[in-house]
Each structure stands twice: as structure tokens, then as C-alpha cells.
């Protein structure tokens, strides 16, 4: 399909700007943006994963130099993610052949974006209203979580933890499935889970998350290329170029803004995107049948 190069660069640049502003990957914004532009959902999901893999590689190099990666935890999360991504690609292919993939992707994004957006707006509003105690967010980390009481506990010296391997494996598996089906890195889910569920220190959370995302996104690209042939290399190159440039500007602007304001703006954007998905699901299309080249 013909797509304007300038439009793709502009959209990817804006998504990269938001990613640099907030400090997380932009897959959960980029994939919906591509779908709204008319790119078929299977291509948007698979190609978005290639961009996530490239940006994650850049980020993990920086975090490695800072020694901000818990490699033992990262490999454990990646192990679950590998199994999850393989399962997700298998499910992705089955849904694609049944003709239900677009509907499933839209429903998942509707639920995910609206839920995360609402939580971000709620927390941002609470912080702006001053509902903090001694500078600690209202989202307090519990003293002990399920990860501390389940069996098969091992030590994670870099994070200073002694927890069960079951929650990291399950968490990695879930992120892998979502990455394969929705074309997201999962950092905006993985990072809060690592902080509040696994109780990892914040100085190693971002680097460890990027390592898991890099492994999973790279595997998703390979599996999608082999199973569904839905990775568009030209589109991926354009997304990477625009995203890298936009992320640099976003990081500079974000350094001068308060975190609660940034989260609030992003939450509003996510809610707006979920409304667009809901609109497309409810409103009857102009054309009920579309002839295309076929993706399977």
C-alpha cells in the first residue's frame, strides 16, 4: 500500500518524542498510530516489534555502561518471554487465518489503553493535588508480596532480592504474549510490575526491562517474519529514523517538566486513543468488504 514517507516520519517522530518525554518504549503508541493511518493491523504489529528491538538495543547499551542491569533477573524474565512470544505468534497466526485478528487487536488495545490511561491520569491528579507523604507516591510498595512467599526462591544479588522464580517467569510469559499479538514492548506494564510486585530497586528496573524487551521483540520479529511474513522492512526503517530523532528532543524537553504532568498528558493521550478504537468498533464502516493482496 502507498504511504506518505513524510507522514510516517512525522508520526514516528511524534511517538519518539512522547517516548523520550516519558521514558518508556513507544510500541503501545506506535502500533495504534499505524493502524489509524490505514496500515493493516498484522503489519503494524509485526513491524512495530522491529522498531522496539532497535530502540531497546540502543537503550540497553547505555544502561550497561551505567551497570544498571540485573542480568540474572533479566534472563529469567526473558526465558518466560521467549515461551510467551512463541505462543503469542502461534495465536497471532491462527487469528490471522480465521480473519479475527483485527477485532482482537482492537479489543485488547481498547482495554489496555483505557485502563493504563485512567490509572496514569488518576495518579497524576493525586500527585498534583498534593496527596503525597514525605515525597512518596500514593502507590506504596508493600513490605512483602507473593514473590517472597512462593517456592523456588533464589537470590538476585544485583537487586538485593531473595524471591521465587515463578512470578518473573509468569510476568515474562505474559509480556511475551502481548508483544507478539499487540506489537508492544511491554515496558509500561513490566516496569510497574517489577517495582510493586517484585520489589526491585528503581536504579536497575529500566535497564533490566530493556534487556527483556530486546530479547522478546527480536524473537517476535524473527517468528513473525517466518510465520506470517508481515514485517515491512521499509516501514520499519522509516519508523526507526523518525523515532530516534523524536526521542532525543523528547528527552531534552522532559528534563524540564514534572513527572506527574508528563504522566497526566500521556494518560489523556491513551484514553483518547482508546476512544478512537471504541469508535471504530461501534460505528459501521463505509465499506463492508475490502479487496486486498492478502496477508496469509
From TrEMBL:
Q: Which InterPro entries match?
A: TM_pro_TauE-like, TSUP/Inactive_protease-like
- Tree of life domain: Bacteria
Q: How does it sit in the membrane?
A: Multi-pass membrane protein
Membrane-spanning parts = 30-53, 74-92, 104-128, 149-167, 173-197, 204-227, 233-250, 262-279
Query: Where does the protein principally reside?
Result: membrane
Its annotated compartments are: Cell membrane; Membrane
Q: Which GO terms describe its cellular component?
A: plasma membrane
Name the keywords, alphabetized.
Cell membrane, Membrane, Transmembrane, Transmembrane helix
Q: Which PANTHER family match?
A: MEMBRANE TRANSPORTER PROTEIN MJ0441-RELATED (PTHR43701), MEMBRANE TRANSPORTER PROTEIN YTNM-RELATED (PTHR43701:SF12)
Give the family this protein belongs to, as stated in its UniProt record: Belongs to the 4-toluene sulfonate uptake permease (TSUP) (TC 2.A.102) family.
Instruction: Kindly provide the name given to this protein in its UniProt entry.
Output: Probable membrane transporter protein
Amino acid at each position: 500500500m502507498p504511504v506518505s514517507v513524510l507522514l510516517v516520519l512525522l508520526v514516528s517522530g511524534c511517538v519518539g518524542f512522547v517516548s523520550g518525554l516519558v521514558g518508556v518504549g513507544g510500541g503501545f503508541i506506535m502500533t495504534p498510530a499505524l493502524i489509524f493511518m490505514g496500515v493493516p493491523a498484522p503489519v503494524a504489529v509485526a513491524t512495530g516489534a522491529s522498531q522496539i528491538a532497535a530502540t531497546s538495543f540502543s537503550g540497553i547499551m547505555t544502561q550497561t555502561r551505567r551497570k544498571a542491569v540485573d542480568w540474572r533477573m533479566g534472563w529469567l524474565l526473558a526465558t518466560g518471554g521467549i515461551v510467551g512470544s512463541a505462543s503469542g505468534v502461534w495465536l497471532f497466526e491462527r487469528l490471522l487465518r480465521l480473519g479475527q485478528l483485527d477485532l482482537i487487536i482492537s479489543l485488547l488495545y481498547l482495554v489496555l489503553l483505557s485502563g493504563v490511561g485512567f490509572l496514569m491520569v488518576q495518579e497524576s491528579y493525586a500527585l498534583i493535588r498534593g496527596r503525597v507523604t514525605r515525597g512518596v507516591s500514593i502507590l506504596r510498595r508493600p513490605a512483602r508480596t507473593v514473590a517472597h512467599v512462593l517456592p523456588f526462591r533464589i537470590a538476585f544479588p544485583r537487586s538485593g532480592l531473595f524471591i521465587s522464580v515463578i512470578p518473573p517467569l509468569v510476568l515474562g510469559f505474559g509480556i511475551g504474549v502481548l508483544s507478539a499479538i499487540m506489537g508492544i514492548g511491554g515496558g509500561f506494564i513490566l516496569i510497574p510490575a517489577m517495582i510493586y510486585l517484585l520489589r526491585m530497586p528503581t536504579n536497575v528496573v529500566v535497564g533490566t526491562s530493556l534487556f527483556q524487551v530486546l530479547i522478546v521483540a527480536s524473537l517476535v520479529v524473527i517468528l513473525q517474519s517466518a510465520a506470517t511474513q508481515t514485517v515491512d522492512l521499509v516501514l520499519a526503517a522509516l519508523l526507526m529514523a523518525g523515532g530516534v530523532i523524536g526521542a532525543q528532543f523528547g528527552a531534552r524537553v522532559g528534563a524540564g517538566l514534572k513527572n506527574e504532568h508528563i504522566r497526566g498528558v500521556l494518560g489523556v493521550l491513551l484514553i483518547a486513543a482508546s476512544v478512537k478504537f471504541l469508535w471504530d468498533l461501534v460505528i459501521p464502516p463505509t465499506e463492508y468488504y475490502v479487496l486486498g493482496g492478502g496477508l496469509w
